[in-house]
């Protein structure tokens, strides 16, 4: 690991522990639809002054390697508010990565720069209502359409589970043309995009929550298409493999924090004449956590190395997402169990982290979809001999 990454990660962790964690009790952080934009702006101003805003992107616009990014994002995840404060949160982090690889210089200046500066949030409009047969885990089912009209594209459709749309200034909209899937950069809000509802979900860490949207004759200038018509699925893969891994990084940091809290509880609380940690039923859960935390770190580092080699890492990111999300779920559950009644209250962050990790097992591809994809690869490789 590089000295620069170790230094950045140490600064980020110190900032999150000393400045961000006290905000967890702030009423602005405790909405069911995510922390308020006012709170996010306040924390980001402090992060900027501390020199830890958008720490994974360097001053010259270049990115840390994926292995370097891993230890920085893990450090940012020690609080659910940490990635928001230092600007490493989804969907912005993944959107910044995509624009950095695909956008034109003009598009970067207009749409990417405000995201890197932390002055704007973004949304990725891909997922559609399942009840209408739209795109979800299978993006090839996309029903949102786009057609060229002079020097503009006209987009129509519905979207669902669009994280952070409410309050976002930059949108990446996916739709299908006669050529195939397309991506468009859009200034938000736009009167052609209507918020039908903000969904009530089990997680609550992302500003703006998760929106259901209707798009009616959205007109987008042709020069705001991201890349080429019909190449949208290829660009989605550029974004999704690192984004899956980034989620693993952030929530590993969160589960390390939950483990710290549960350990502190077990080493101070007494029952039946001895500390909880001395009861094997409790101590063994914390020992299991230690093992699983190390396994998660190794999986993340391995997958990051694959991505750094230039591979898309589709299979590797699927394996890592499955392994890490399932392991983190067990860790979070153990922490709740160790703490008993206190583990299911909002008195500590453990209860929220449990909810967040449960949602993580679904977004960016449920475990079962990744296993199905890996099984297809096993068969394909076998038939190749």
UniProtKB/TrEMBL annotation:
It comes from the Bacteria. Keywords: FAD, Flavoprotein, Oxidoreductase. Residues 124-201 form the Acyl-CoA oxidase/dehydrogenase middle domain. Its cofactor is FAD. Residues 5-118 form the Acyl-CoA dehydrogenase/oxidase N-terminal domain. Residues 230-377 form the Acyl-CoA dehydrogenase/oxidase C-terminal domain. Gene3D superfamilies: Acyl-CoA dehydrogenase/oxidase, N-terminal domain, Butyryl-CoA Dehydrogenase, subunit A, domain 2, Butyryl-CoA Dehydrogenase, subunit A, domain 3. Belongs to the acyl-CoA dehydrogenase family. Homodimer. This is Acyl-CoA dehydrogenase family protein. It comes from Tsuneonella flava.
